[in-house]
Specification:
Length: about 160
């Protein structure tokens, strides 16, 4: 558990689920709470690039969350457009987080190399694309969760600890 209280938003991107069936999003909500952090919103949008982009923008700009977790839409399916939607509304890439997720997941399955997930910054919010399956989303979370408090601190110009 961290001393720093982070705020999160979960945006599930799916044409096949609704919120009642969003086991991956529910698992992420639990993982956020387990760290003593707060999930301010958990929403579901269809796999449409403008809808995903607007949901990310809303979470960053209107809700002002520290971290937006997208869930789903980062694979090779023709309907998977979450990375593109993320790039549409974010300013700066944070490639190390996406690389760390793929590396961590690759230790478990070779299919991790098929992920097109990105991590980007919009203002003072971090946007992280996670896979849509519960297993893969939680594995990717495990690969990067330890760095999130420091990332949020850096985005707020908090400086490094000596």
């Amino acid at each position: 558990m961290s001393d720093q209280t982070l705020t999160f938003a979960i945006v599930t991107c799916s044409d096949t689920r609704d919120l009642r069936q969003d086991a991956a999003g529910d698992a992420l909500e639990k993982l956020i709470a387990d760290n003593g952090w707060m999930c301010r919103t958990h929403t579901l949008v269809r796999d449409e690039r403008p809808n995903i982009a607007e949901a990310i923008r809303h979470c960053c700009d209107d809700l002002g969350v520290d971290v937006v977790l997208t869930c789903g839409g980062s694979g090779l399916s023709p309907r998977d457009v979450t990375p593109e939607a993320t790039r549409d509304v974010c300013e700066r890439e944070v490639p190390g987080i996406a690389e760390a997720m793929r590396w961590h997941s690759f230790q478990i399955t070779p299919y991790a190399m098929l992920s097109r997930a990105v991590c980007m910054q919009r203002g003072n919010s971090l946007v992280i694309n996670l896979p849509g399956s519960t297993k893969a989303a939680t594995e990717n979370w495990e690969g990067v969760v330890a760095a999130l408090p420091h990332a949020v601190k850096m985005m707020a110009a908090g400086g490094h600890d000596d």
